[in-house]
Design a protein that fits this description.
single chain, alpha/beta, Rossmann fold, six-stranded parallel β-sheet, three-stranded antiparallel β-sheet
Length: 195
């Protein structure tokens, strides 16, 4: 029976690496997969999912207006799709998460989503909130803070290295912009701001 999965974490936990490895495992056994990534994130190149350790694969992109149920239905009509993998799932619209859930339920296609849980201000992304509400299974991908504790938060840094506490929720970046921290060190870095 197909399920909707949400693998979540902070930055630099290896989510994209796990996605690429899981897709490779399916492909190695002769099963076809489809990869999706947010069109706004071209850090690995347009239409590519890339990992910090250097592996990557081509993927189709999605934007906020795309109907993902219709896309998966078209793929399913053309081939036997074993699994759909979605990277940068925090950028999904709530309606798109529902479309993925419908693809699982109505088309019997497993969907594995990988993304951030919270932004640099400690708030849920819309796509992540919907996945936390509707996913059949959730798995935390763990990474560590500089102190060795589990990192559950992330700070955004400006070009000068100072921590930013205001700004747009979405700003594409990597190690030059974001640092994963435990909650204690996030509170310290952000001035223990009231939420």
């Amino acid at each position: 029976m197909a399920k909707l999965y949400f693998h979540y974490s902070t930055m630099n936990a290896g989510k994209s690496t796990l996605l690429l490895q899981a897709s490779y495992n399916y492909n190695e056994r002769g099963m076809e997969t489809r990869l999706l990534t947010a069109g706004m994130d071209a850090r690995a190149g347009a239409g590519r999912i890339g990992s910090r350790i250097g592996i990557s694969a081509p993927a189709e992109t999605y934007g906020p207006a795309d109907d993902l149920f219709a896309r998966i239905a078209a793929w399913r009509a053309a081939a036997d799709i074993a699994c759909v993998f979605v990277d940068e799932a925090q950028f999904l619209a709530q309606s798109q998460v529902w479309q993925l859930a419908r693809a699982v339920d109505d088309l019997n296609v497993p969907v594995m989503c990988y993304g951030l849980r919270v932004d640099f201000q400690g708030n849920l992304f819309p796509g992540s909130a919907a996945l936390l509400a509707w996913a059949d299974e959730m798995r935390e991908v763990r990474t560590i803070c500089h102190c060795g504790k589990k990192a559950a938060m992330v700070v955004r840094q400006g070009p000068d290295g100072h921590v930013l506490t205001e700004g747009d929720q979405v700003q594409i970046g990597g190690n030059e912009s974001y640092v994963s921290l435990c909650r204690v060190h996030w509170r310290e870095a952000t001035g223990d701001r009231a939420i």
